[in-house]
């Protein structure tokens, strides 16, 4: 079923049942998380992307609100029709299975194991890593993380928030724990840098408000949880579109190219 929306119209709200999937035909969809009396923009999905598919597959309520960013045309696909479509399209099925596989893993145990393994690597393995520097790019990030670039000497390297007084500390070892005051934009384990088959990735760790990498939103409400990093500079924003916690990752390959 094709439907059209004007800018600002709501497609579904956080907490609604996940009974259909949206395929964007033209325009853009803003994904927002309702926090207290306000909303945080997590990012925007564009033509050819699905919105709300993981909620349908997992049978959970909407974890965010979807709003038309401008004039918008979508295809609304009911749950049963979407599942039938998945069974007919191997590429779509593979994409969704990969995402569900990542979700079904216990991320905390996996990363804790990777951190433990990192401590046992030999010097040759460490020197094979590209040169990585993480720099705070906003006043708030500089205030809490410091103005000096942070050299990353092992992967994974995880960024998060110090646990509040009523919270349990994250089971994931957090390398950069930021003492953010309430209201929180960061999750206790927010995003990590890791090495996967020779490629450096930024991966959102199921954070509450997501991670944006060079404009690409990652996390529970988007089509990807991770994205590769290339030589040069990469901008990472943790905690929504206008979050004060922005960083620049500078990567130089072992041959000295950036």
Blueprint of the fold:
Elements: E1 2-5, E2 10-12, E3 20-26, E4 29-35, E5 38-45, E6 50-51, H1 53-58, E7 65-68, E8 72-78, H2 79-88, H3 90-104, H4 107-118, H5 123-127, E9 131-136, H6 139-145, E10 150-151, E11 157-161, E12 176-178, E13 191-196, E14 199-204, E15 211-213, E16 216-218, E17 226-228, E18 232-238, E19 246-252
Parallel strand pairs: 11-12
Antiparallel strand pairs: 1-8, 2-7, 3-6, 3-8, 4-5, 4-7, 9-10, 9-19, 11-13, 13-14, 14-17, 15-16, 15-18, 18-19
pLDDT averaged over residues: 87
How far the N terminus sits from the C terminus, by CA atoms, comes to 47 Å
Low-confidence stretches: 121-127
Number of domains: 2
CATH third-level topology of the largest domain: Tumour Suppressor Smad4
Tell me the strand percentage band. Answer: 35-45%
Strand line-up of the largest beta sheet: 10-9-19-18-15-16
User: What is the helix content?
Assistant: 10-25%
Which structural class do you get from the secondary structure elements? alpha+beta
Largest sheet: 6 strands, antiparallel
The CATH class assignment of the largest domain is Mainly Beta
Give the radius of gyration.
19 Å
Number of DSSP E strands:
19
* Element pattern in H and E: EEEEEEHEEHHHHEHEEEEEEEEEE
Q: What's the shape?
A: globular
CATH architecture of the largest domain: Sandwich
- Number of helical runs? 6
Report on this model:
By secondary structure, this protein is an alpha+beta fold. The chain contains 6 helices and 19 strands.
Task: List the defining traits of the structure above.
258 residues; alpha+beta; Jelly Rolls; Tumour Suppressor Smad4; 6 helices; globular
